[in-house]
Amino acid sequence: MQSLLARKLLVITGKGGVGKSTMAAAVGMLAAREGRRTIVVEVGEQSRLAELFGVHEPEPGAQVRLERNLSTISIDPDQALLEWLQALGGRVSGRLLASSGTFQYFAAAAPGAKELVSMVKIWQLTRGGRRDGSHELVVLDAPATGHALGMLASPRTFGAIARVGPVAGQTRHVQELLQDPARTAYIAVALATEMAVTEALEVQEGLQRELGRELGAVIVNELLPRRFTPAEMTRIDAVEPAVAGAGRRQRAAGTRGGRAVSAATESRGVEDAGNGALSPELARAAVHAARAVHERSRFQHNQLARLRRRSFEVLGVPFVWGEGLDLEAVRSIGEHLGRKL
Fold first, then answer.
1. For the chain, what is the mean pLDDT?
2. b/e string for 68-77 if b means 16 or more Cβ within 10 A?
3. CA 260 – CA 300 distance, rounded (Å)
4. What confidence tens digit (pLDDT) does each residue in 197-253 have?
5. What are the structural domain ranges in the chain?
6. CATH topology for 4-224+319-338?
7. CA-based nearest residue to 225, from 136, 298, 131
């Protein structure tokens, strides 16, 4: 199977909040480390990858070199549309065009215009290779599912209006790029939740409907490990009643001896089947924590099974413990994915 990193364009999308931008950054860093001249494209006004590398408020629309073989750019659809119309309009100034009623009308009335010009800029980034010093791989940190599918459908939507001329030619080039399995691959990012997995399945359906394409892989983020076997959970479930029973026996023994067992005495612990002193409060907390982790992990793997039943290539990314993801954490995620991509 052709490596996903061997394409010209990797489109990464998924439900908002699942770590899509983190995965796009990790994949971009992985490709750059493997020697491919890579650019990560963000759409909108955000520049998350540049900020991750300590570059704050980069020049809008400008490519930012981050490290060897790795750059990033943020495409503002409104600005891209303005530049596109200005190029078509010759000497008409950008300020005049932006303030004109014609531009506002066109931007509102032309279906898929902003999405199309964004895709045209992305197509332009994919052209060329190492010989001319341009990018070998473009990683598109696409918007969330619905908007991303709208972007990918824009050549067909807008192509119904523009059938001849330079606009038609650009539309055709973008459509060919998106439909070509040798040049473009699609990755969905999800959490192992019912809603996020359902949205990943919707990405697959949208790709089939709009482009006749399939997902190359699904990255499932924030997976918890399976810490306990069923046999171990049976033993864990037996701890709480055993500790509670020992506590009752201790209190009863204290009462028969003519005194009540104080809270301080009880807190010093009871003997649990030779496992050492364990207070009832600590035992209950430990058992409840173990059950919660086990149930969450079991639910996550059930969601993974939903994806695997559809024959998707499923790439799991373990949960990263900490207050936030820094550059090294994202780099380590890329290294993890590299073992599977």
1. 83
2. ebbbbbbbbb
3. 47
4. 999 999 999 999 999 999 999 999 999 988 888 898 888 888 877 766 665 666 666
5. 4-224+319-338, 230-296
6. Rossmann fold (3.40.50)
7. 298
